[in-house]
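Appendix B, example 12.
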Amino acid sequence: MSITFSPDGKTLGLLASRNWQGTLALWDVARLERLAVLPEHKKVLSNVISSPDGSTLVAAASDGTLLLWDVASHQLLGSPLAGHNEAIENFAFTPDGSTLVSVDAAGTVVLWDGISRLPLGTFVLGHSQGVRSIGLSRDTKVMVSSPTWGDTLILTDLDPESWAKYACEVVNRNLSRKEWEQVVGTGLEYKPACPQLPVAEIDP
């Protein structure tokens, strides 16, 4: 079903299908030996990737969740990440591992904090025929997405500072703390995004 190498090339994560029940195994590439079969999860998995530092394996389940395993202990990391209402088509880490980005068939994108695994924000892409794949720039500021059908690519700005600047231009004032969390997420500490405008002490 899916295969991924660890960044150092020493470990192979193999997702095999048995009656559509995905089994995820780790292999030592040098010795050609299986290191472990990761714990049963009772979900149908379709794809697997490795985090940039090689410490985590992430797999997409058919119910629209993401499952994470610790490579060293071979154990699941907490509960599945639930933020999609449809099957996840594609997902990827930013190059620095700070953010995990997932997109479902309807074009809904969820940004996850790479450490806390909490959602940072959600938005919908403008592909009318669904989304097939995504790619991330090395500076983590731009995402490109392709549709299930058609040849139109969409570039999306993922830079939180850019989001904050745009939001200030729209409302012509600084965001309140609640609005900051809605627009920027909880990954960045609250600060007035527009120095020339007064700070919003309370929500409007």
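The two ends are 50 Å apart (CA to CA). Residues 2-158 form a domain with the Methylamine Dehydrogenase; Chain H fold (CATH 2.130.10.10).
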